[in-house]
Amino acid sequence: MYRSKRRTVKTRSLQEKLDTTIPRASKATISPPTSSTLWDFPNPSKVSTLHLSTEERDICARRINFETIIDLVNAGKLDIEIVNTAVSRVLRAKFEMGLFENPYNAAPASEWNKLIHTQEAVDLARELDRESIVLLENHDNALPLKKSGSIAVIGPMAHGFMNVSFSSLLAYRGVTPLDGIKAAVGDKATINYAQGCERWSNDQSGFAEAVEAAKKSDVAVVVVGTWSRDQKELWAGLNATTGEHVDVNSLSLVGAQAPLIKAIIDTGVPTVVVLSSGKPITEPWLSNNTAALVQQFYPSEQGGNALADVLFGDYNPSGKLSVSFPHSVGDLPIYYDYLNSAREIGDAGYIYSNGTLEFGHQYALGNPKAWYPFGYGKSYSSFEYGAVKLDKTNVTEADTVTVSVDVKNTDAAREGTEVVQVYVVDEVASVVVPNRLLKGFKKVVIPAGQTKTVEIPLKVQDLGLWNVRMKYVVEPGAFGVLVGSSSEDIRGNATFYVQ
Question: What region holds the Fibronectin type III-like domain (predicted)?
């Protein structure tokens, strides 16, 4: 931004004055808070909450704070230096943003429609949504669906509020899965909708309508998941099941949602289940009992259209999980980069649906492995990997190793997108290190039946560790390179050596 010389001088002198009168870090101290008062935002009279302002951190400042601060200072309960420190941070931010030089630079309200919610922005939101959808299962090519016949759309997340907003402008509800499916098929197919149950309730009174909708249809799409609206302040009565200040002791579906899915499956109609959530859901029985299983993490307002794009094959799914899905909450913590150990993981046990118990070792009736691992995600296409190649195998810390692999889209009719992932294993280290670490990936679009060579660079400097002296070093020795479609689906490997 251009600034005149005079304006720059004035700003600089004023900022120097600010430095002199309001130091960056006040020496004022105050008694540390107790855990019960640390985040007591509405009651600033408990001034122990304000000690964080002397540590270069800020906390929420509501209207009641400003209405009370003067009285607290006058009464000697709040050191004015704490207030000065907080004010200085606000002023510094405004100086750095140039707000004193050009204070009213925002677009006028009359121009908002030209800048916000443009077609370009809507298209981008839809693209981001569909690229983030993860196909977990697709038995017997149940997906993509045909845009004909009859389709049941069922579930509490199929046509409810979308998890959007928290913006300075009011957003409309967005495109729900039902909206998106209807728009995709137009008048080519009959849509039978039933909610079935609420997101949070055990009430099954809506099951009969949902079962009837499924029986009248060629396929059923059941959308279930979690709900993260604020049930206290914003949406009274719409009880949140996940999100900020909402803790749970189970990752299973809440209320009647799992029984609803079972009721639809029991009709014999092919059932596609969509998990709409902001976290992993632990319902492993879904893997082998549904025609297809899809994970849609909370989308934008275009989520319904994006889901329809994937369900009907207008977009070939390419999303990969950025988090591991456990079999149950008892498996937590679960992550792909667990530390190496001399003890092997024991075989898993299992509780079958008929009640039969199969005992394992170390994990008696559970599975320590992820239900779906980090980096996992299917496609309507399939991909074959060639041999992994390295451009050099003897390197120094300053080098970059280029990993290359040929990837073929074996689908003769459909373009596909694969996310090629590179994990590195430090074969011998002076301290305990993760069994593998993701160090690179590339998302590549591969035309039907064609092969692409994918190259991913690895900086040797990025392969270091913190040794026993807490110094970051790249230790000499062998490093294994694992290339695959997920953290567990490794298709090839190679080794290089650091001198």
Answer: 418-487
